Amino acid sequence: MSTETTHRLVLASASPRRLDLLRQIGVVPDAVDPADIDESPLPRELPPQHALRLAGEKAAAVAARHPGAFVLAADTVVACGRRILPKAEEEKQARACLGLLSGRRHRVFGGVVLLSPAGEGETLRRSDRLVRTDVTFKSLSHEETESYIASGEWQGKAGGYAIQGRAAAHVRWIGGSYSNVVGLPLFEVAALLRGVGFPLP
């Protein structure tokens, strides 16, 4: 196996935020290939289990299309208690999410899975991490909620907000990895890559 093939990295995500975060630590994937899987929670599935399961399923789906490559996949879940908040696609969803987050602490779980090429005839090696970040929002007024809805930043975002945008003005406190809330816990990703011998800058 050539060095070029051995060190080929595929990002199993359509998220431009994850691509930007990887570039922040000097990692540029050779390909970006979204998995396009069903992301619905299973019955009684808890938020951390959901995040890690989806990351694993994304990685497996994409690895099948890129033999011999490293495949990195991630999933971000925003949770209030045991409740998994959706990726808001409509204003009604976003308002409901913001209403749940307003004035209280919630958790953001990031599941990361790295599949590494093994020897011929061997299964892929899996490395994974589950990262938790706690985030507290201020109590949002009606005007603040409507202003954020009008910004459109909530579209397609887990929990109906993007911490790297205007929502940062409403975050009173954060405990843990900031990049995890954006979409990819960089410290853990770098550790996974180093652990399998993938060259980092």
TrEMBL record:
Molecular function, one GO term: UTP diphosphatase activity
A single GO BP: nucleotide metabolic process
Residues the record marks as active site: 75 (proton acceptor)
Hydrolase keyword on record: yes
Record site: Important for substrate specificity: 17, 76, 164
Main location per the UniProt record: cytoplasm
Enzyme class (EC, first level): hydrolase
Catalytic reaction(s) noted: dTTP + H2O = dTMP + diphosphate + H(+); UTP + H2O = UMP + diphosphate + H(+)
Compartments (UniProt record): Cytoplasm
Organism domain of life: Bacteria
Keyword Nuclease: no
Keyword annotations: Cytoplasm, Hydrolase, Nucleotide metabolism, Plasmid
A single cellular component GO annotation: cytoplasm
EC number: 3.6.1.9
Pfam families in the cross-refs: Maf
Cofactor: a divalent metal cation
UniProt-listed InterPro entries: ITPase-like_fam, Maf-like
Gene3D superfamilies: 3.90.950.10
Biological function: Nucleoside triphosphate pyrophosphatase that hydrolyzes dTTP and UTP. May have a dual role in cell division arrest and in preventing the incorporation of modified nucleotides into cellular nucleic acids.
Xref: HAMAP family: Maf
Family (UniProt): Belongs to the Maf family. YhdE subfamily.
Listed name of the protein: dTTP/UTP pyrophosphatase
Gene that produces this protein: maf
